[in-house]
Amino acid sequence: MALTAHSTIGEWLNDEVGGPLVRGLFEKTGADPELLTPVLGLPLQQLVAMSQGALPQSVVDHLVRAANGGEIPEDTGTEGWTEKPTSGRFSGKTVIVTGAASGIGKATASRIAREGGRVIAADISAERLDALKAELPDIVTVAGDLTQQSAIDAVIAAAGDRIDALANVAGINDDFSPAGETTDAVWDRVIAINLTAPFKLMRAVLPIMEAAGSGSILNVSSEAGLRGNASGNAYTASKHGIIGITKSAAFMYGPKGIRVNSVAPGGVATGIPMPPNMSEYGSGRLAPFQQAIPTVATAEHLAASITFLLSDDAVNINGAVLASDGGWSVQ
């Protein structure tokens, strides 16, 4: 069978032609091919997203040509899991998605739009939002820093009088520092983006949903929100906090027809960009746990979990925390 961009990384590495090509690419960049171990089940195409822009599509195309005598074979893209949007699942619904210009947020916004929803796509990057709108012309984009009330007000204004659902996806990582090393700057920024901004958006949409007698909110937590060994002090606190506000709001607003749930991702191929000046002590302490990640998901995997809980398919689910982590949290 020909190697394509949708053949898994594991299939490439195990192939007598593809293996040397992929390993050679990593040797040129100075990266260790062992870094691919958690993502062997993902398609080679995923390397583009995983690289955060460092690896262009042309490199993957070059690998495919090199493995197939200079040609790119017909690629059905059917290997492994494939996203299967549900036509009309969000028809007539207005859905706010934060962090919508990249990663999990982009995959979520795209799926909701393709399932008929009116998407209000919020992100701090105006440039990336413009690129998203070029792909999905019907979405409404709002660029702004959601730690600022003015940006939250702009999102609510763009949504209008009806808001059926909110997906709080935007987030950043910390520097892996333990409590004794966490600076005020790291703490304040991580808590502001990961916890305070989602809370303020919830606070803004809840009266609108309450007046309508229905609504659905999805807050993205993390495997780090389920226990204390997956990330640094600030990130872990912020994601535990997300679970707290999710459960509190579910309890308070469930009787009013509003469901509030959370998804806790594990390793995701798009990842959250790591900041500079990582804590050497914290990174060392966390490394054994991070190396135990059983599998790394794609953004589309997480979007499947998120859109399920946001949609009416999850009609009887409220206050749930869905660990969408490939089983990492049960180890």
TrEMBL record:
Keyword Oxidoreductase included in the entry's annotation: yes
PANTHER family per record: DIHYDROANTICAPSIN 7-DEHYDROGENASE
Top EC class, one word: oxidoreductase
Record EC number: 1.1.1.-
Keywords: Oxidoreductase
Gene name for this UniProt entry: lvr_2
Superkingdom field: Bacteria
Protein name: Levodione reductase
Taxonomic source organism: Microbacterium hydrocarbonoxydans
A Pfam entry, by short name: adh_short
GO molecular function annotation: oxidoreductase activity
Sequence similarity: Belongs to the short-chain dehydrogenases/reductases (SDR) family.
